[in-house]
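FIELD: query
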Amino acid sequence: MYGSTAATAVQSQTGGLGTLVFTAPYTGRLRLASSSPIYAAPFFSTPIDSIRAAESATETLLDTHRNAYPTGGSVTLGVQDAASSPTGRSRAILRLTLTVGYLDGSQSGNMLLFVLPHHRTKMVYPDLNGPNSPLVSLAWSDPRGEVRGMAVAPANGAVNLDLAYDMPDVRFEAGRAVPESYRQAIISQLLSTDQNVALAPAGTSVNRVAAVLQDMARTAVIADELAVTAPPYGTQLRAAATKLRQTMKNELSAWLLPSASAPKGLAYDITWGGIISLGPARQGARDMDDKNNAYWNHVYHYGPLLYAAAAVARDGGMGWSEAERAALLAVVRDVANPNPSDPWFPVVRHMDWWAGHSWASGLVNGGVDRDFGRWVTYRAQLIVDRRACIVYNPRVTGEWYTCELPGLRVG
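FIELD: result
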């Protein structure tokens, strides 16, 4: 335990519970730290002498860096163009900023913090591999990989950690063409059954409709590719792709711009600032439709919708009206809004920047969600969502995050 001023406390233990009582009122600042790495090691796998030696080294390190501590944090997003990037590709830049306080008020000393593998592999500042690397000897195992300590010198009252990510080359086209040995079977299936997929069984559930639309969108894109690689069927395949796009467009339009009495649709929630399913909203229910109205699984629900919308408008195909376009961008802003100046939506609502992943969980109700805990978004769902945002992106121009919201508002 470290304090900003000296104090006296008496420790006692009763029934396995420890108590620390100060002998006088204390108005300073306290820091608590554990020097034992025992919980990071498998039980009985580490000799006790080794544990004690590690505790001693850890205690020395904690003593050295006891003064500086984090008081808050923020995230800044940016893009580095290809010409400025050392990799020759555009890079997304994530800056994690930690503001720093000091126990003794001296504003001296490095701040000790701990980083995970997904930080270290992408960190460009500070330089972890150079001669002045801030990494220290303290490390332990974690389900996500080795946790490493580093002691960083604050500047202007803060520590900045810059992470860089090469922008992915995401397109509609698959990485490989459909093998010729499979083409005939796929074409027959597509022309006989797949172009006639029915949306009715999905009903008014946004997650079920989104799943069907995603399948239809991918089928339309496959038809586009096969129309080029299998010319004898070109006319039929292009007609099938057009039919699928028209079905998707009709369904998406009904969801994006619903009437006040429509049985299904999306609406803006004025209470929490997001896009939710209209049917449950009319009933004031936040635990229906895969808990969409409680902001659960939005990445899973809206990624497929955006992919379908992009497939509809692919290569100047069927366009969207200005109102439909604004509604689609509102869906993008619900799950992937990058701008803190947006007056309607929070920044990337479900993303946990430090943990490096998105959460599937949303609002928590003690009665409904007590057994669910915090769910991580499935990687496949997240990939679908981010790919959808990327392929839809070329169709976005201007300061889209200030668009007026179309359609209905609830809450």
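FIELD: remark
DSSP finds nine helices and 16 strands in the chain.
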